[in-house]
Design goal:
single chain, 361 residues, mainly alpha
Length: 361
């Protein structure tokens, strides 16, 4: 018997009927699953809309409450908040609202959060062993200004997990402002550029002040802490650390020396240009250029001999930076560059014209 005859012999009416029933059941099951999924999704959407509407009304009443009393919670809202997913939605809504409020209004939002026992949800996350839940719990607690949790959260500013560590550090600054930077004293892990930017953005809203621990941080064995401390000194004009920043010019890290050069120029006194010129010969090409850029900002006639010598540097970028500093800071700067251009047109004529155009002389 041929394969074709064998196959046709296998296909009987009974078998076809059985297969059609199986496919029909599978199709019905798939349709039912799709319907159930869409129904549940639609139901969750309308439930969230309902909760959001009730929360908005409730929040509105609370914000008008100048006495800070107990706000009545309707039974239907309490019923909706029995489900975990709805409670999380309520937490997210309250956090989103509180971000845009200050003073009594923000305090009232935190009170609502506590009144609904949503703090318990955040504490459950905070004490959870999973890093993502713990980080989320820390975030919720500091966003709702749960100050009594400061010490417990502070214990995680040196956590091995970078996400938990970052949230805990952010929490401390949210709670205590500049004093919250105390976690830098014992930080044993990297402080990423992103986290540094995040912290600096947080501090922006605060009144600038002297930072007591900054000298310790500049002397830290953690290079990330040193780098961040140098940035703090630059941004918040911490004149008291000038000499400590000078020591950072001998640091083995090119990146730290680069930031130290910039910070030193920001904190400049009469000796700063001389210090930078002294360290110039041993620096990388990139840091040499940074030194010349800072001398452009703080230099004067005293640096002319040094800058004039650098016009002979084989690196054209260093030539250009030197020419800029001469033109801007030296009383006869453009005459010096013009004389160079006349004596040796290539490349000094192009440099002279570029600097003259750039400085709009």
């Amino acid at each position: 018997m041929s394969p074709k005859e064998t196959f046709l012999g296998f296909i009987t009416a009974e078998r076809l009927y059985a297969v059609s029933i199986v496919f029909g059941c599978v199709t019905a099951l798939i349709v039912l699953m799709i319907y159930t999924y869409l129904y549940q999704k639609k139901r969750r959407f309308f439930t969230k809309q309902k909760i959001a509407a009730k929360l908005d009304e409730w929040i509105g009443e609370a914000l008008l409450d100048e006495e800070g009393g107990h706000t009545y919670v309707t039974s239907d809202l309490q019923e909706e908040l029995q489900l975990h997913v709805n409670r999380q939605f309520a937490i997210d809504q309250l956090i989103s609202t509180r971000k845009n409020l200050t003073g009594r209004a923000a305090t009232n939002i935190s009170r609502l959060y506590e009144q609904l026992d949503l703090r318990d949800d955040s504490l459950w996350k905070f004490h959870n062993k999973r890093w993502d839940r713990k980080a989320k719990g820390i975030y919720e607690l500091y966003m709702m200004n749960q100050l009594d949790m400061r010490e417990e959260i502070a214990a995680y500013t040196n956590s091995r997990n970078e996400h938990i560590r970052a949230e805990a550090q952010t929490a401390l600054i949210t709670f205590s402002g500049f004093e919250g930077l105390s976690f830098l004293d014992e930080l044993a892990y990297p402080l990423t550029d992103w986290q540094q930017l995040k912290i600096l953005e947080q501090l922006k809203a605060l009144t600038p002040q002297d930072i007591p621990g900054i000298i310790r941080w500049i002397r830290s064995v953690n290079e990330y802490v040193v780098l961040f401390a140098l940035r703090l000194a630059e941004i918040y004009y911490q004149l008291q650390v000038h000499d400590d920043v000078v020591h950072c010019l001998d640091h083995p890290s090119d990146r730290i020396r680069h930031q130290a050069i910039i910070t030193l120029a920001r904190l400049a006194n009469l000796s700063t240009s001389g210090i930078l010129m002294q360290h110039y010969p041993a620096e990388t090409q990139a840091n040499k250029r940074t030194i010349l850029q800072q001398i452009f900002k703080i230099g004067g006639d005293e640096e002319l001999a040094f800058l004039d010598a650098e016009l002979n540097n084989p690196d054209d970028l260093l030539k250009l930076e030197s020419a800029r500093a001469i033109a801007r800071n030296c009383s006869n700067g453009f005459d010096v560059l013009a004389a160079r251009a006349q004596m040796q047109p290539e490349p000094y004529l192009a440099i002279y014209n570029h600097v003259k155009y750039e400085l709009k002389r």
